[in-house]
Write a structure and sequence with these properties.
Shape: globular
Number of helices: 2
Oligomer: single chain
Strand content: 35-45%
Distance between the termini: 71 Å
Helix content: 10-25%
Structural class: alpha+beta
Number of strands: 10
Order of helices and strands: HHEEEEEEEEEE
């Protein structure tokens, strides 16, 4: 024997649940990168070259890729360190729900020829360019050459 009232109630419950999941966003909101930059700094350089360090965090559910960096202070390249070897790269991954860390002795930004003298207390503006997220502007303070941040890089 069929119970039309039960079928209608079950259908209504299923539709209400689907509607609630859609309103909460679900996986679609988690499907894009959500980038933020912290712990950015440049140790005071002793020449026209300088290194830059920072952390790019991705709270999103999709990876992104750092494709280039530009700066008001001159040319910037991205370097990767593997073992004892450093090399310039054209891009680096920012994993989903992960971080890309630029640290002393590891990956870093290289200011190849600073267009101005920078001293402790100054800032260097950079723009990080990503494959999916577009550009992110960052102010990098110039710290003492011996600066050792609490973040470990």
């Amino acid at each position: 024997m069929r119970h039309p009232g039960r079928s209608a109630a079950a259908l209504a419950a299923v539709l209400a649940g689907a509607s609630a999941l859609t309103a909460c966003g679900g996986a679609a909101d988690d499907a894009k990168p959500e980038l933020s930059v912290t712990a950015a700094y440049v140790p005071q350089p002793v020449s026209e070259m300088a290194a830059g360090f920072l952390t790019v965090a991705n709270k999103g559910g999709t990876a992104d890729r750092l494709t280039s960096v530009t700066s008001d202070a001159g040319p910037v390249s991205v370097h990767e360190t593997v073992g004892q070897s450093m090399r310039e790269v054209t891009s680096l991954d920012v994993p989903a729900h992960g971080r890309l860390v630029f640290a002393s002795g590891g990956n870093h930004l290289m200011f190849d020829k600073l267009g101005r003298t920078v001293r402790q207390g100054d800032t260097i503006d950079v723009e990080l360019h990503f494959a999916t997220s577009g550009a992110v502007k960052v102010e990098m303070p110039v710290k003492p050459a011996t600066y050792n941040p609490a973040t470990g890089h």
